[in-house]
Model the fold of this input.
Amino acid sequence: MTSKQHTAEHGSQLEQVNGFTNPGIPEHKPRVTDSSPAAERMAERQIAGWFILSMIGTLWFIVSYFLFPIEDGSMGSIRLQNAMLGLGATLALFSIGVGIVLWAKTLITDVEVVESRHDIAGSEEDQAIALEIINQAKEESGIARRPLLRNTLIAAVAIAPLPALLVFRDLGPLPGDSLFKTLWGPGVRLVQDPGMVPHEDRYIRAEDVTIGSAFHVIPEKMYESEHPLNEKAKAAVLLMRIDPQELNTDPAKEDWGVDGIVAYSKICTHVGCPVALYEHQTHHLLCPCHQSTFDVTNHCAVIFGPAKRPLPQLPIAVDDEGYLVAQRDFVDPVGPTFWEINTRETSEQ
Done:
């Protein structure tokens, strides 16, 4: 059955439905490229030009990555490289899209047909029909008899993923055990987060932490490290004081706090957002990103939300001068559970 016969039969069936008359498919109006070989060749060259422009955009992305390097501490170089990379990526993707749209509008057969839907089956007859449809699509699109368009499209699509391979280079080396280590260690003092310039008067005495209070804490001398913001992303801590009678302390962690003062990682174990909302009445910590809620009275166990494990606790103590210090680094890895989680034994700290 031809498409026209099928359309006529389908139309006659529709005329009998609920008394409505089927208006039928609108009359096909030929395009300029359907009747003019010269216009057809011109359209083909234009489409190929867009595909070539896409390749130029991809190559510009690659060249820009090396031509405009990021200089340490220079926001201007970051903006310039991002602008050049964005220009290349936009040109590459936009040009492929425009070329495909023009191909569909000017050269691919645009005769409208109506086809009934059939149940999907796996018989040999259906496979033959599917193969016939593929061959028909190949013929109507002209991809088999238009090597210029076919080859330029294949080339543009083939090199389009190359920029992504370059971007992977910026991800740096594999993290190794760096995700399991922070700047916290034996005797490291807890310091209120002061911004980019730490001061000695930001050290925290146990007597300064009152019941109901919460401090945003970082390790001392953190901003003297080579990559302070990276270190802060792992070492940020929330310090709180709760009536010791309200704490359900694990006997194995009984000496991890100081008279109701406890410290927990500020990095949510869901996707790493900062857990910064402390509710004094319920002793709950809330992550504002996806509402994961942690119970401070039960070692920050998850009581709501998508997080799968508690916030790691930082064992703390008081030094000879009365300041709060870390006993060791976190026993559990901080941050989102994206990698293999292996709890470290206390003896390894």
Observations:
- Residues 185 and 328 are 4 Å apart (CA to CA).
- The beta strands are 190-192, 214-219, 237-241, 261-265, 277-279, 284-286, 293-295, 301-304, 316-318, 324-326.
- Residues 1-8, 10-14, 343-349 have pLDDT under 50 and may be disordered.
- Residues 178-348 form a domain with the Rieske Iron-sulfur Protein fold (CATH 2.102.10.10).
